């Protein structure tokens, strides 16, 4: 059973970077939640926890300690960049283990390709920095900076589908790195059974008109109702 520790960058009294009506902590929490949902839905053989289930204020060392005490196999800290740049970058510690570098490589590829399906955003590359959560964690650890909150990148960060895609790419990368087995997909046969049952009690619908102008549809529906027929507009 592999243990995955997700770190939602910022929270509580620390919102992280704030610009363009966005708070870094709101975005990182969404991304991590999408990542966790995706893993839950598609893979087995793991347990996952986040450094904060809600919006607690935590120090960097507290978050690293939590991962160490739990004995996590992997630690992923999710952030949004600031400083008016553009693009995606991913960090490991300057003295990173080969496993951390392997995790960085897999996640870099997955996340970048997900981002580039929305826009041809700059690859700022695989970097190294002496960040506390990377320095103090004992397992393979990375920190992602997912675009800039205070530049043109913000328009992508306001797109929920984008946050979902970025979260799911984090999940796929972690699953690949840990070699998590995929959940069996439901067989088509088991999906047909309820349909066969339902066919014993068929419903017949009568369509009485289709209109390009909704007003005409409403007029006919009103007329039918007046005559005692239930009418719905689809
Ligand atoms: Zn941050």
TrEMBL record:
Region ranges (Disordered): 1-20
Protein keywords: Hydrolase
The keyword Hydrolase is annotated on this UniProt entry: yes
Lineage: Bacteria, Bacillati, Bacillota, Bacilli, Bacillales
GO biological process entries: peptidoglycan catabolic process
Gene Ontology annotations for the cellular component aspect, listed alphabetically: outer membrane-bounded periplasmic space
Cross-referenced SMART domains: Ami_3
Name this protein carries in UniProt: N-acetylmuramoyl-L-alanine amidase
């Amino acid at each position: 059973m592999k243990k995955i520790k997700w770190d939602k960058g910022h929270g509580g009294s620390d919102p992280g970077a704030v610009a363009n009506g966005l708070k870094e902590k709101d975005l990182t929490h969404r991304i991590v939640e999408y990542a966790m949902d995706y893993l839950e839905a598609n893979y087995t053989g793991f347990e996952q926890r986040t450094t904060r289930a809600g919006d607690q204020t935590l120090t960097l060392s507290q978050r690293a300690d939590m991962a160490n005490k739990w004995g996590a196999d992997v630690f992923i800290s999710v952030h949004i960049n600031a400083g008016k740049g553009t693009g995606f970058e991913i960090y490991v510690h300057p003295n990173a283990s080969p496993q951390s570098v392997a995790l960085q490589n897999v996640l870099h590829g997955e996340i970048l390709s997900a981002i580039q399906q929305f826009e041809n955003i700059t690859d700022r590359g695989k970097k190294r920095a002496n960040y506390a959560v990377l320095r103090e964690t004992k397992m393979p650890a990375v920190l992602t900076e997912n675009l800039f909150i205070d530049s043109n990148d913000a328009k992508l960060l306001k797109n929920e589908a984008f946050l979902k895609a970025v979260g799911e790419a984090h999940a796929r990368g972690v699953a690949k790195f840990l070699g998590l087995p995929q959940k069996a997909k439901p067989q088509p046969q088991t999906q047909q059974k309820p349909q066969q049952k339902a066919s014993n009690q068929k419903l017949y619908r009568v369509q009485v008109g289709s209109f390009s102008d909704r007003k005409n549809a409403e007029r006919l529906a009103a007329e039918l109702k007046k005559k005692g027929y239930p009418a719905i507009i689809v």
